[in-house]
Write a structure and sequence with these properties.
The complex is a heterodimer of chains A (115) and B (114). Chain A has strands at residues 4-7, 10-13, 19-25, 31-37, 43-51, 54-57, 64-66, 76-78, 87-94, 105-106, 110-114. Chain A has 115 residues and is mainly beta. In chain B, the strands form 3 sheets. In chain B, strands 2, 5, 6, 10, 11 and 12 form a 6-stranded mixed sheet that branches. Chain B is an all-beta fold. The chains are: A mainly beta (115), B mainly beta (114). At the A-B interface, β5, β9 and β10 of A face β5 and β6 of B.
């Protein structure tokens, strides 16, 4: 079955540690996205990538980093510089870069808790 | 700039009653509009989308939405609520920025009681 997988589902981190969230898709989509979800705030865009080896900052990129070395993979690193990292993180993909009518398909999410 | 406002962070209906979730948008370009549903601790699933082909859009699970340009609205409705409809619903807009950027509303949590 085609889809988006995220791992792990739950992640706990101590303050001061970097942590990497995995996102893999087998839909052959060009574009991939990372969102952060906080209660009552909807989803906010962290980073997006329209093509391999290229990515752009979203609205809340500070304290995060990404890479796009393969079309199917778009890992997100939450660094120690992120002041309030506890949140639900969602990865998404869409068929074409720049396609405003394209549906974004979402993974199941990773819940990160900083202890 | 684009934005989305969802009126009512929580909506409660009886099983079998009409569901109405409100969404108003602001956009300087012709908007494309989406409704997504999220069940607890899961990702988002597309319910329906408006891409200018028809103003009344039918989606999955019996939901539909009507695009009203004069009211800048894209409200989501379902004639008869089912217990399985209990979830959080997000309205989103895209259409500017040169890439498929979605701007999400804050979400509306729908409760369905017997």
């Amino acid at each position: 079955d085609g889809g988006i997988t995220q791992s792990p589902k739950y992640l706990f981190r101590k303050e001061g540690q970097n942590v990497t969230l995995s996102c893999e898709q087998n839909l052959n989509h060009d574009a991939m996205y990372w969102y952060r979800q906080d209660p009552g705030q909807g989803l906010r865009l962290i980073y997006y990538s329209q093509i391999v080896n290229d990515f752009q900052k979203g609205d809340i990129a500070e304290g995060y980093s990404v890479s796009r070395e393969k079309k199917e993979s778009f890992p997100l690193t939450v660094t120690s510089a992120q002041k309030n990292p506890t949140a639900f993180y969602l990865c998404a993909s869409s068929p074409e870069a720049g396609g405003s009518t394209d549906t974004q398909y979402f993974g199941p999410g990773t819940r990160l808790t900083v202890l | 700039a684009q934005s989305v406002t969802q009126l009512g962070s929580h909506v409660s209906v009886s099983e079998g009653a009409l569901v109405l979730l409100r969404c108003n948008y602001s956009s300087s370009v012709p908007p494309y509009l989406f409704w997504y549903v999220q069940y607890p601790n899961q990702g988002l699933q597309l319910l329906l989308k408006y891409t200018s082909a028809a103003t009344l859009v039918k989606g999955i699970n019996g939901f539909e939405a009507e695009f009203k340009k004069s009211e800048t609205s894209f409200h989501l409705t379902k004639p008869s609520a089912h217990m399985s409809d209990a979830a959080e619903y997000f309205c989103a807009v895209s259409g500017s920025g040169g890439y498929n950027k979605l701007i999400f509303g804050a979400g509306t949590r729908l409760a369905v009681h017997p």
